[in-house]
Design a protein that fits this description.
single chain, 281 residues, mainly alpha
């Protein structure tokens, strides 16, 4: 026989699940509207009352955006930039995080780490012009490197990796590796990186989303049509007098799908990195 306490626990748990379901539906509603709008005509998108399903389904929006824009090249550019940025950022952030976590007696370690954390308070807009001037002097405007290098060694990424490595990589394991004759970089590559994979996976997904959706910097630094990324191509579809919202929604769906698929493939690593104490002191 169920006790009043167990009934109360069941009711609280059911209420919590119901609340989570409602919140999930609220968060999924914009994505659902993006999906169905990609298959609607201009009139159906702005119809009153709103149509929750396209009638009829219009596949021409995808053909139109493929015909009117350099979509394949933009997708290739986005992939190259995102993969390059994530790879470089993971290497630099994990290497710096390892140094800050496991070399506390190095001269200026604490002060330098405090300085790195202090840079998180600087708004990104403040650094746009200085970064642009530096890249211009290096003749890197309108190139992949101009999109990959800036922000690769981010303060948040270094902090994230430093906290995880400090909490999960035992000093005794590193000492044993040194006794066996392993080099310092070998210790990082063969011991630290495998242990820190959950944190690197979580950080990589966050970096991927930021790099893939980077519109403002792409708008500033990329000058020719063959270098445009997907967000930039979609942004340029907007006109002063008329905007093809069907094409806009189709492009938005095509841009969002790789991120959704990537998260579904690596969600276990992402959740493991978030929940395994990556931000413990």
């Amino acid at each position: 026989m169920r006790t009043p306490h167990s009934i109360g626990v069941t009711l609280r748990r059911s209420s919590l699940y119901l609340l989570l379901v409602v919140m999930s539906l609220a968060f999924l509603l914009p994505f659902y509207w993006l999906v169905i709008s990609a298959f609607k005509s201009q009139g159906q998108i702005f119809s009153t009352p709103p149509q929750w399903l396209p009638n009829p389904w219009r596949w021409g929006n995808f053909a139109d955006i493929y015909r009117e824009t350099n979509l394949i090249r933009a997708f290739f550019n986005s992939v190259v930039i995102a993969v390059g940025h994530v790879t470089l950022a993971l290497f630099l952030c994990s290497l710096a995080g390892y140094a800050f976590a496991k070399y506390p007696r190095a001269p200026g370690n604490k002060r330098l780490f405090a300085f790195v954390l202090g840079t998180m308070m600087i708004p990104q807009a403040v650094t746009l012009i200085p970064t642009f001037v530096i890249l211009m002097k290096l003749h890197m405007i309108n190139s992949y490197w101009a999109m990959i290098i800036p922000g690769a060694a981010s303060a948040f990424g270094i902090f994230w990796m430093r906290q995880y490595i400090a909490a999960h990589v035992p000093d005794d394991l590193l000492s044993a590796a040194r006794i066996d004759g392993c080099s310092e970089f070998g210790i990082y590559w063969r011991i630290v990186v495998p242990i820190a994979r959950p944190a690197m996976a979580a950080l990589g997904i966050m970096l991927l989303i930021g790099s893939w959706n980077n519109l403002m910097w792409a708008f500033i630094i990329l000058r020719t049509e063959d270098m445009q990324t997907l967000p930039l191509v979609i942004y340029l579809l907007q006109g002063e007098t008329r905007t093809p919202f069907g094409m806009l929604m189709a492009g938005g769906l095509l841009t969002t799908l790789p991120l959704v698929i990537g998260f579904l493939l690596f969600q276990r690593q992402f959740i493991a990195g978030i929940t395994s104490g990556a931000i413990k002191a």
